[in-house]
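Might I ask for a little of your time on a matter of protein folding? The record follows directly beneath this note:
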Amino acid sequence: MKPVQWVKIVLCLILAALNVFLFVVSCGVDYRILVAREHIRFRQEMPTMDSWINSPFGKLKSYVFNVTNAEEFRRGRDNKLKVKEIGPIVYKIVGFNDILERNETNVKYRKHRYRVVEFLPEDSVAPDVLNWTITSTNNVILGAATKIKHTAPFAALGFDAALMMEDIFVTDSVYYFLWEFTRPLLQTLSRISNIRSNVAVLYNALKEKEEVYTVNIGPKRGIENFFRIETLNDEVIIREQLPHTLLHDSNSCPFNVTGALDNSLFPPFVQPDTPLDIVAIESCRVLPLTYQRQERYNGLDTFRYTLLKPYQKPPGCLDSSYGIKLPDGMFDVSQCVINDAPSAFSMPHFYGSSYNWSQHYEGYTPNTEDHEPYILLEPVTGIPVTEKYRFQSNIPIPDLSSFSLRLKRFSNMMIPSFWYEFEMGELPGFVTALMWINVNIVPHMQPYCMALFLVLALWSVLKAIRVACGDLSYAGLFRKLCGDMGAVTALETKFQATNDSPDVAVK
């Protein structure tokens, strides 16, 4: 045979062997597991890597409250504050994950949540909403009174005298309250202490925090442990909560990040009973996700999780703020906000809270659709497809009966400063397409691939034989292997001829 024929024969036999090998391997594996194992290796070349690197991405929608009866309340003619919600005030948000170290089992990265913050006038309630004038409670005075009541209750009279020139209500632009809120008292204190003078809500909420995560990757760690956190800022306890672990058991308080997730990626093959916690860095705690139901979204079956349950009791270490017992559905975040101010998070409009807001306010409309925070997670890939992360920041006020009349009227109230919703942007089309293939095609393709391997193996063997026999056709190969079946042997029957023939007369 010619050398070219030998090359063809060898290549065909290699192809046959390869397909037999793939068929044998396919008998003992699940294609879904193979795809998942490649996914959790978290390679730089992953198609979804670009989407993850530039996350979080979406819209931040802020809402503030305009007090419409400030003068009537100040003079005692109204016993309740009448509020009107202003919003949404929408900003485009794009983050960035900077990979610092990577090996077979871990990746360490720094998260920059707010690399891009861009006001979107056309998506907001009005293009000029930042210039609107609103009236709000003077949260600097109210927060300071709360701290004084807790730390130095006998200083109440001196506190009132020092702040006689400060009005209990402040009227200014929406932009002022979001980005430039400062008062003479804060400016004075900032010169002699480490107190910050600008307490505007977005100015402080969007300040970058140090977030360096070390998370598990790779098959050696187990599929179920993919992207679970080992450390945050090289600690297992959230840094702001470290001083409080002396008073509270870190095992019962949501301060330990080990095994939690950063809310960007989740393990594959999530089940409704799979424990999932996320690090809520803006509230310095770990939040357990609660499975609600299955929900269809963009052609995918997803699991819906809520971040807070209605009337959920806060952990014992977060159930009070500066000595004020918090209602169910709220938790303390004072260790995590500007100037360690008294502060508690709830769902917007006090939805799901046991606080009787109607005793002090008119104008709130708490409801599930607009105010419940949730995540939709595709469970096979562990990729969130959308989320609406909603929280309201409140100042809890104690009994201020020992203060002046203007402060006393705010006793035992919860004062909302603002609420926000982070709405995740749509995933890129190629990521959604890959997820759809992974969910709808990969689980059903295994028997077809195995049949194809067998067909290719048989074809390769036959091709090698044909080449070895001088490039025979399939018909020629068949005749050579099975003999000459083309000739037909007929059975011949001979009859004896007779001389006598009957005469047939036709009349």
Notes: Confidence is low (pLDDT under 50) at residues 486-493, 501-507. The radius of gyration is 36 Å. Residues 105 and 220 are 7 Å apart (CA to CA).
